[in-house]
Structures are given as C-alpha cells and as structure tokens.
Amino acid sequence: MRLWERLWGRKQKWYWCPYHQEILLRMSEADYKQRWCTIISTKPTHELAARLNNFREVKGKLPKVLDEIWAKRMKARKAVDKALTAYLKSPFYKMGAAKKKKAQAYYEAHKKEQAVINNMNTVMHENILTIRALYEEEQPYGDWNWDKMELDFPIA
Known about the structure:
The protein is mostly helical. It is built from 6 helices and 2 strands, in the order ααααααββ. Strands 1-2 form a two-stranded antiparallel sheet. A hairpin with a 4-residue loop joins strand 1 (144-145) and strand 2. The radius of gyration is 28 Å and the shape is flat.
C-alpha cells in the first residue's frame, strides 16, 4: 500500500483539513501519473481507448455538498499555489538555489581533480610488473549461469 493511500484513512483527523487534503491529492496525482505513463507505454492503443471511454463527466452531476467540498479544495489549491509562489520569490529559496549551484560546482571540480589523479596513478603503475600480476587472473565476482538458470555463486 502506498503512503498516500495509507494517509487517506479515517483515523487521520488532519485529512479533513483542506490543506492536507490538497497535499494528499497531489501525492496521489503524481502516483497515478506514474502508473498511467507505464500503462500508456506498454498497452496497445485500442485497449487504452476502451479504458478511457469508460470515464464519465462527474462534476456537473454532483450533489451540493460535494460541490462545496470541490470549492474548498480549489480554495486550498489556490492557497498552496500562493504559498509556493511566495516561497519561490523569497530570498531564502534563491539563497538555497545559489548554495546548491556552488556545491555542484565544487563537486564537479573535485571529480575532475580525482580523475586527473587517477589517470596519473594508472600511468605510473601500468608498467610495473609484480609476481602477483603474473600469476593472478582477474575473475568477476559472479554471473548468471545460463545452463542452470541461476546465479553461479552463492548469496551469503
């Protein structure tokens, strides 16, 4: 069971707060998007068409209570969007983004440096011959055994 499905339960009182409901809705939307993407990428077209044709327009035929809930939901969504835009405009967010950029630059520089060092080490060591190198043949840890259709090494 997914997280958002667990959070839709009756026992969670904060589910009735429209803000939390909105968060849950977004989580479930993301989840369904993921699943629909996999369906669309794997199923043939006619089956998809059959599935999509089963949907009916619901919003107009709802009772008034549900219309109120829908209005509350839209209000909550607008509030969340407002909060998000305010956050994205805030200097704190920009500061964080700048820090991330800087950290990324440092990380890339470090990686380049490591690559140079590794290259140097290989150049230094590739001509050195040892007794161990003469007698040792490199073997992989394990592979799929295609004859027995199982792993050819035990899993501890």
